[in-house]
Sequence to fold (379 residues):
Amino acid sequence: MVKKLLIISSDHTGHGHKSITESLCERVKTNEVSIHVVDGFSLGKQLLLMIGKSYGPITRNSENLWKMLWKLSALKPSLVDSLIETLIRDNFLTLLAEIEPDLILSVHPNFNGSILNILEKQNINIPFITLIADLVNIYPLWADKRASYIISPTFEAKKKCIEYGLPDEKIKVPGFPVRSRFFQKDYHQRKLYKRGQSLKCLIMSGGEGVGNMKKIAETLLGHFDDCTVKIVAGKNEKLKTKLERSLKTPYGKRVEIYGFIQNIQDLMFTSDIAITRGSPNVMFEAIASNTPLIITGALPGQEEDNPAFAENFNLGVVCKNPKEIKHTLNKLLENDGEKLNQIINCQRNFINANAAEDILQFILKVGESYYEEAKVKLS
Fold:
């Protein structure tokens, strides 16, 4: 019998939710599983879709506003749940009738309590699982006790869920799911750094393209004569144009500038260092590709402690001041790249390359257990 899995994701609030969803979908190898993915914001008609699309402009242009919105909505998660429940209820029930899913997986916090409210009020008994997309700073909406299980990418996130009142046995920690293309066939293919080799740097800042990329690039290109820089501006077309105008003339072929691209893994594989903000998805894709990280900061709220997380596990280093980037890089390269090579080895030992597969198999086992129990009750 084909198992139908409904995934509630998001197309507009960064790119991480889509990437996580894709990492699970690509692990389906048999015809016994059918996955239907829906953008949760699209269920709320124009108003909710507009709210989802506002994430990019707000995080690009006003981090303080985003911090305020994040903190205010975290104070009363039940109000957020009720509002979204009202907006999505009719379309969600229509979707359920069309798909008839055996399981529901949410990878966005805004649709956990709201959907559980609907299921509860309609007496619909379908296993509901939450997959947390953040690492340390967990939004209260992730931690609804009514979920069948919570899948956490880190033990730090699990600890926060327990603080919110979730029982330990409901929380599973398989690791962060990353798309398979970010893992090289030979995970030890990346060579350790040797003194004197030319330095290839990659600067990126998540799908929305935020951060002081111009200053970082100028510092690198101005202080390391054999350095080349590739910059990914993401969906931020204005930033891409600005970078092209200011950097191409003085630095020529030493700098390459990209918009939103699908093959970011190829740039990671061919770079010695990735310089990025503390986006969980970007961080873990870099770790999967075994690319040492320099983390320049993080969005307030859900990303706040991600830079410290990376340093704690020696997955990268933090440099919040673009003027200090040259000193940070010099530290990584001294003693024949001792620190840089330590990071390479720590990343190899840290990442669970099978996390997405483990998560998918766990979800399917939950479904099997649920229906076995239902059979017993009917008999």
